[in-house]
Design brief:
The protein has 306 residues and is of the alpha/beta class. It is built from 9 helices and 12 strands. Helix 4 packs across helix 7 and helix 5 packs antiparallel against helix 6. It starts with 12 loop residues before the first strand and ends with a helix.
Length: 306
């Protein structure tokens, strides 16, 4: 995979990461002028769906499981890890559809899932609703990350590669076991449909990775794990935050607001950064979603009327 690095130094770059950006742009009735300029006139770059955060922070793919493990279990995070997260499944006559944004309560199914994986030589560790298995080596397989699952049927996002048969079988076995549990409880929605495997691998040597930013402002555990691993300053987002050069800011949309309202909020957040970009205080501004990002330089900013 090609590096996404540019000539701009980290202290002159601002990255604004909006995980809901693609959905907001798709659903909005009216796009505010500054957002429209960034979307239409910025240089469009695709992001690797398997490692969006890695590309934005370090310009390369990095394994999500090893990063979030640093947040959840900092004293036991070294080595090769795979995420094994509970997900929902909804079956109809056409297909089995996947649901990611659900929170499942722990129950008797946890012990049986652990036993099932133990038969394969794997140990399941559920922490804060996130599941992990420790591996000896990184699988020769590609996995679909959770943010690509919405509205996708199971058959279109199964693991692919030389090791895929093992992981497909394990996914199927967890699905069968949990289906039995769902049939025996009063509220099946509290029992997941399966475990979803993704984000596997180990982290490279820190000195071989060169961050594109100096500070991370985020709630996302992958980004927080990256800040910890790379020794970057970090803080949580709040509405009083003023974006500055050297930051990667994860900007959260409000679920209670519609797309138009959220994009107007985003425009207000970006205005100070846009002014600094035109004055040269920021040399590069990136607006990123989960599939693409748009890059603007100071020269680009003066070509767009605002």
């Amino acid at each position: 995979m090609k590096s996404s690095r540019s000539a701009t130094t980290p202290d002159k770059r601002l990255v604004v990461h909006v995980p809901q950006l693609e959905a907001l742009l798709r659903e909005a009735q009216v796009t505010p002028p500054l957002i429209r300029a960034l979307v239409k006139r910025g240089r469009l770059l695709a992001l690797d769906p398997a490692s969006v955060q890695g590309e934005l922070v370090a310009g390369q793919a990095l394994p999500a499981a090893a990063l979030t493990r640093r947040v959840d279990c900092p004293d036991d995070a070294d080595g090769v890890w795979m995420r094994a997260d509970p997900i929902g499944m909804v079956a109809d006559l056409a297909a089995v559809w996947l649901e990611w944004d659900k929170v499942f309560e722990s129950g008797e199914w946890c012990a049986d899932l652990s036993g099932l994986l133990a038969e394969e030589g794997l140990s399941l560790d559920l922490v804060h609703g996130r599941g992990y298995v420790r591996l000896e080596t990184t699988p020769e397989c590609t996995f679909s990350p959770p943010w690509t699952l919405a509205g996708t049927s199971l058959e279109h996002c199964l693991p692919e590669g030389p090791d895929a048969r093992f992981w497909r079988r394990l996914l199927n076995d967890t699905q069968v076991l949990l289906t039995q549990y769902r049939r025996g409880v009063d509220d099946p929605s509290k029992v997941p449909g399966s475990l979803w495997f993704w984000g596997g691998g180990s982290l490279p040597e820190v000195g071989t990775v060169h961050p594109r930013v100096h500070r991370i402002v985020a709630q996302d555990p992958v980004l927080r794990g990256m800040a910890d691993w790379l020794g970057l300053a970090q803080r949580e987002f709040d509405e009083s935050l003023e974006p500055r050069a050297g930051d990667l800011v994860e900007w959260p949309a409000r679920h209670a607001d519609d797309a138009d309202t959220n994009l107007e909020r985003l425009q207000q957040f970006l205005r100070p950064a846009w002014r600094r970009l035109r004055r040269g205080g920021i040399r590069e501004l990136e607006l990123a979603g989960m599939a693409t990002r748009r890059r603007f330089t100071t020269t680009d900013a003066w070509r767009v009327w605002r």
